[in-house]
Specification:
Blueprint (H helix, E strand, L loop, with lengths): L1 H22 L1 H44 L3 H13 L5 H11 L6 H14 L4 H15 L5 H12 L6 H14 L3 H13 L5 H14 L3
Helix pairs in contact: 2-3, 3-4, 4-5, 5-6, 6-7, 7-8, 8-9, 9-10
């Protein structure tokens, strides 16, 4: 008797499953079709991204070769093009190369490249903070203090790994402007920050001992 009940229950369950698939055939086909399309689309997108990354890598290498053989205008054009592509890897590298090799003298143009990378490129948080710091460093010899502080504000108001670098930069800036009290305050902030880089903290302590000891 128990065997018969088990067989009947199994048959009933199988019938329900079969009826479910029959009654929802169109819906199931649509769902599986959507999943298939999404998988194919994702794979295709990844392939395109990989091809674009390889293309940008080749373009960056080509630009550095152009620079080495004296074709500076070609190098600058290629690097500028890469920056405007807003790639998370090669766009920052291209800007650093332009700056390190003095390929563009116009500060407004360089600052615009910084803005593209900081505000429009989908960078990781700390990479973006590094760019903010480098922008401040690039402008530190010509910008008034309010502009420099404005640039660095996103880092100073965070616990970024670049916070101590930003504070140290401001301390050095104010020292160069002969505003020693402000300079001392920022050196002290380096020491007080819990996220400070150990080497930066050591340098700040040295400066305080050397230039501000009474």
């Amino acid at each position: 008797m128990d065997e018969e009940i088990t067989i009947i229950n199994a048959n009933t369950r199988n019938e329900k499953i079969r009826n479910f698939f029959i009654n929802n055939k169109k819906r199931i086909i649509i769902i599986f079709s959507i999943i298939f399309i999404l998988l194919v689309g994702y794979y295709s997108l990844e392939q395109i991204k990989n091809k674009n990354k390889i293309k940008l890598a080749n373009e960056f290498n080509s630009a550095t070769i152009d620079f080495e053989i004296g074709e500076k205008e070609k190098a600058t054009e290629k690097l500028t093009n890469i920056i405007n592509k807003q790639d998370v890897t090669y766009s920052p590298l291209s800007l650093y190369f332009l700056i390190d090799n003095n390929l563009i003298d116009n500060k407004d143009e360089i600052n615009e490249f910084f803005n593209i990378l900081i505000n429009e490129t989908n960078l990781e948080k700390e990479i973006k903070n590094l760019l903010i710091y480098k922008k401040a460093l690039y402008n530190s010899d010509s910008s008034p203090e309010n502009e420099l502080i404005t640039i660095l504000k996103p880092i100073i108001n965070s616990e970024s790994i670049w916070k101590s670098h930003a504070l140290y930069l401001l301390a050095e800036y104010f020292y160069s402007q002969n505003e020693k009290q402000k300079s001392k305050e920022f050196f002290m902030k380096v020491l007080e920050s819990t996220s400070s880089n150990n080497q930066i903290k050591l340098e700040a302590q040295k400066r305080l001992n050397r230039d501000f000891s009474e």
